Amino acid sequence: MITVYGIKNCDTVKKSLKWFDAKGFEHKFHDFRVDGIDAKTIEGWLAEVGGKTLINKRGPSYRNLSDADKAVLENDDAAAAAILAVNPTVIKRPVVDFGTTRTVAYDEGRWSELAGA
Question: A Pfam family for this UniProt protein (predicted)?
Answer without folding.
Answer: ArsC
